[in-house]
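Subject: design request, 205 residues
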């Protein structure tokens, strides 16, 4: 949608800092319970320490800011996944592989907290549902390649379906932890169960 596009791409460091300040301020407002009503361009500009005119140079409305925050949220999941895989030793057990991947993504989901919950609710309105689906397809492809390469003995059935089930399960469970606002210990217990379930599923193939 045209009204949700960024009006101007920052070319200089000063402009980039302004955009970053706006996004940080927007995230801060969203991170606080019951603050959705305060999520206006005026409040965001005030918290960011910029003029409303400066904000409108880069974002035509608050929906455009939300759309950019969704992109940042999804990109953070992508970054953490690739970073985790990059630092993962070549020789690991199935359990260790699953624990590292699920653990790293759990950290991202829970750290985003209420902000993630609000942004996920806004996905259809922001026209970012396809962006989320594209990321999930990318993650499925990456994890499939890693599983086939690292654990060839388990590659005996339809890996596409297998990885689809794994990624959907991880996303659903971790998002549910965020939506239900579980405390740290409750989330750790659930992640442990999730690791066990996925590991046994993979080893049984």
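Subject: RE: design request

Done. Sequence follows.
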């Amino acid at each position: 949608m045209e009204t949700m596009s960024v009006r101007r791409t920052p070319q200089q460091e000063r402009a980039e800092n302004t955009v970053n300040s706006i996004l940080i301020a927007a995230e801060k407002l969203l991170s606080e319970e019951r603050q959705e009503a305060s999520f206006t361009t005026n409040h965001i500009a005030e918290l960011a320490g910029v003029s409303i005119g400066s904000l409108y140079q880069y974002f035509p409305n608050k929906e455009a800011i939300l759309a950019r925050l969704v992109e940042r949220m999804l990109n953070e999941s992508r970054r953490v996944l690739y970073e985790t895989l990059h630092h993962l030793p070549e020789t690991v057990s199935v359990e260790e592989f699953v624990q590292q991947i699920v653990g790293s993504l759990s950290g991202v989901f829970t750290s985003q907290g209420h902000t993630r919950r609000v942004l996920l609710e806004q996905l259809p309105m922001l026209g970012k549902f396809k962006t989320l689906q594209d990321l999930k397809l990318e993650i499925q492809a990456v994890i499939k390649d890693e599983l086939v390469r690292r654990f060839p003995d388990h590659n005996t059935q339809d890996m596409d379906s297998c990885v689809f089930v794994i990624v959907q399960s991880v996303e659903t469970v971790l998002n549910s932890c965020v939506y239900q606002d579980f405390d740290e210990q409750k989330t750790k217990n659930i992640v442990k169960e999730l690791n066990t379930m996925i590991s046994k599923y993979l080893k049984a193939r």
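The mean pLDDT is 89.
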